[in-house]
């Protein structure tokens, strides 16, 4: 009887253990099916570029909301880990380390500023995690490493593009340049100037200013006026561009102006008013675009935030959706995600058709825009 009792007890324990192990296995399987997919967002939510950082956050949040409404990625909901790089390269490195060290984060949308992207890139490369920038246009980012991508074109591309537009298509021959004295501004000025000269036009003035400090542009604008240009190219951001346009008009410097997509902000129009009318620039996103993805994005953004999206919200939206497709097609593996994006061709986003070259730089054609009646409109020659 005792032996039978012991045998019964052992059998009972074995059955319980098997049941528990089976239950654990089912629980893990269920967790795998209902788990989360995490991606990071690294953006300047405070500091000089906070307005653009907020646009980036909103663009990604909208993309996450939309994909989760469809059931997520392979049955898993997407969760965001948002970090503020404060428009500061040192802080960007700290943020990059935090996000990259978290192995549950599969990819990152960010950073915005080129200096922040360059500070974070070595860390992302070391941890083999993709980061896609929605705003870093410096040519230096091209060599940042195999895990660095961007959905905005380079300054080199935009400088050459606007030069050709100005000289070949508009017929300008005597061009003045005013640019911010940063790596961004100088690089843009150098490319634009070289391209203009190569096309047979003359650079009659090339003047710089200190970003965030120069408020009175009268000295450099007087030099430019005396050079008698037929076009003013502005290599900077919208705050200074609005001041330059206003002060140029006060000095009687009434001539056409051109810039690049860094000026593509409603803030330029609100700050510059009538004085920025007629300014020409390239852009990759517009409310009247026939691109169906852009129209869907605009409608959804307005419904969610009760405001119009900015261009960086659109770039961030595209970056997030590229990551989602990579995870869906390649799986939850950092290296496989990177390999998929490296070979991505013709991804239709809100900012156009995205294809990456071997350096992670995006290849796509811009729209031509003009400020007309207080709005950015599609430019027709």
What this model shows, in words?
- The protein has 381 residues and is an alpha/beta fold.
- It has two domains: 36-153 and 288-365, 3-Layer(aba) Sandwich (Rossmann fold), CATH 3.40.50; 156-283, Rossmann fold, CATH 3.40.50.
- It has helices spanning 2-34, 50-69, 89-101, 114-127, 155-169, 183-198, 218-226, 238-250, 266-272, 292-305, 311-330, 334-342, and strands at 36-43, 77-84, 105-110, 130-133, 148-150, 174-180, 202-209, 231-235, 257-258, 280-283, 347-349, 352-356, 362-363, 367-372, 375-378.
- It has a five-stranded parallel sheet, sandwiched between helices.
- Helix 5 (155-169) packs parallel to helix 6 (183-198), helix 8 runs parallel beside helix 9 (266-272) and helix 11 (311-330) crosses helix 12.
- The radius of gyration is 26 Å and the shape is globular.
Q: Largest beta sheet: what is the strand line-up? A: 2-1-3-4-5
Distance between the termini: 102 Å
**CATH superfamily descriptor of the largest domain:** Response regulator
What is the helical fraction, as a range of percent?
A: 40-55%
Tags for this entry?
alpha/beta, Rossmann fold, five-stranded parallel beta sheet, 12 helices, 48% helix, globular
Question: Strands, helices and their partners?
Answer:
Blueprint: H1 2-34, E1 36-43, H2 50-69, E2 77-84, H3 89-101, E3 105-110, H4 114-127, E4 130-133, E5 148-150, H5 155-169, E6 174-180, H6 183-198, E7 202-209, H7 218-226, E8 231-235, H8 238-250, E9 257-258, H9 266-272, E10 280-283, H10 292-305, H11 311-330, H12 334-342, E11 347-349, E12 352-356, E13 362-363, E14 367-372, E15 375-378
Parallel strand pairs: 1-2, 1-3, 3-4, 4-5, 6-7, 6-8, 8-9
Antiparallel strand pairs: 10-14, 11-12, 12-13, 14-15
Helix pairs in contact: 2-11, 3-4, 5-6, 8-9, 11-12
